[in-house]
Amino acid sequence: MIHNVAQGVQSFTSNAFLVEGERTVLVDAGASFDAVSAIEERVESLDAVVLTHTHPDHVGNLADVVAAFDAPVYGFDTTQDGVERELGDEDTVAMGDHEYVALHTPGHKNDHICLYAADAGVLFAGDLIFQNGSFGRTDLEEGDRDALIRSIDRVADRVDADLQALHPGHGPSIENDPYSHIELSGKMARQA
After folding, report:
1. Is the pTM higher than 0.90?
2. Residue-level pLDDT at 10
3. Which of 10, 76, 148, 169 stands the most exposed, by the fewest C-beta atoms within 10 Å?
């Protein structure tokens, strides 16, 4: 089961997805809300936190979550504050009841990864791909439009066209033909 513990929060935050199952994992910690209480409403413990990237809106609650649950933090770049364990390109991590592969997808931020479980048909897209052709900003430090386009193309090539769910870093999750949103994001990023 996947639940966005940041759903309904009225402050600037990323989504924070609780992936329940054999290994309970939080994908991104969000910011500016009581993530610990939101997590405790659903589970008693966390096995890990996995970060799609380390922008403040994705890691603002990280210290509180780690203090409350003593969970190790995985991310692409262990030189970033809070990231304890490296999750390199093509490395796998167990989340819920599935194995997810980390895909290094820079363009929005250098340490950005997407997480994909082919058997579950689930993609955590971070701030690379959003609904309706939206895509991650490239006007921030480390932003690079050409790299972002290559990253979207990589995800489009890697993910099965029968993808079941796309969980972005912001906005609603997409469960109705999510692959078409990946394709549209690639087209829109080229036109912008």
Report:
1. yes
2. 87
3. 10
